[in-house]
Amino acid sequence: MTAEPLVTTTLPPDLDRDRLPRHVAVIMDGNGRWAQRRGLPRIMGHRQGVDTLKKLLRTCNDWGIGALTAYAFSTENWGRPHAEVDFLMTLFERVLRQELAEMNAEGVRIQFVGNLQSLPASLQAEIARAVQLTHENPGICFTIATNYGGRQEIVQACQAIAAEVQLGKLAPEDIDEHLFSRHLYTADLADPDLLIRTSGEMRISNFLLWQLAYAELYVTDTLWPDFHLDEFHQALSDYQQRHRRFGKV
Q1: Catalytic annotation on 16?
Q2: Short-list 97, 120, 121, CA closest to 110
Q3: Over the stretch 105-147, which tens digit does the pLDDT of each residue have?
Q4: pTM of the model
Q5: Does 77 participate in catalysis according to the annotation?
Q6: Could you say which of 14, 18, 29, 230 is catalytic?
Q7: Tens digits of per-residue pLDDT, 153-189?
Q8: CA gap 57, 100 in Å, rounded
Q9: Nearest-10 crossing angle of helices 42-63, 229-240
Q10: Residue-range domain boundaries for the chain
């Protein structure tokens, strides 16, 4: 049976609109393996993975999910072969340039998190243009974690807070969870309610370490390019069957 493509404008009737996650985060794992199993270069898996992400973004927007955050490139990914890294940087830039007008027309608000200063200058320029053009859009907030590492983010937040204490702008007793969160890349974004990880790996891989404290986890053996509508539907259905207690009874 062929999986249904990810794209529909109507929320399935078995899902409760009032109990949808406000914010979905995804670890898009398995692009390289998807390509290798088909005798293709790894880069073909990344191309297919971009198509899956585009369809997921549109589905989330259509169904009323307010935020989608995708783990696109980690700080550890620089250790991959140079040719693959160069391709990914070029792919990010090309996709932004080609898809920006359509995403803007659909009301998508785009933002990036991570150490963007280490990215190629031309990609930084495309990122700045996309963020500026869409920053007032009323639709889904689409966050792309690029050159992102959760530990790095926490260390940088600690450094920024320590500098404010040193300058006398803060007292140590002023530091609480709310203040700490305001020093993270995601300061203006609610924490994810649901984390989806494809390819069956049972770890969060240095992704949103602070923000995922009480997220519900959904792990599937499906490789990211094959993550279609039926599986996303299942992830949401599974989420709505859980009782989120946040440490309480």
Answers
A1: no
A2: 97
A3: 999 999 999 999 999 999 999 999 999 999 999 999 999 999 9
A4: 0.93
A5: yes
A6: 29
A7: 999 999 999 999 999 999 999 999 999 999 999 999 9
A8: 13
A9: 50
A10: 149-184
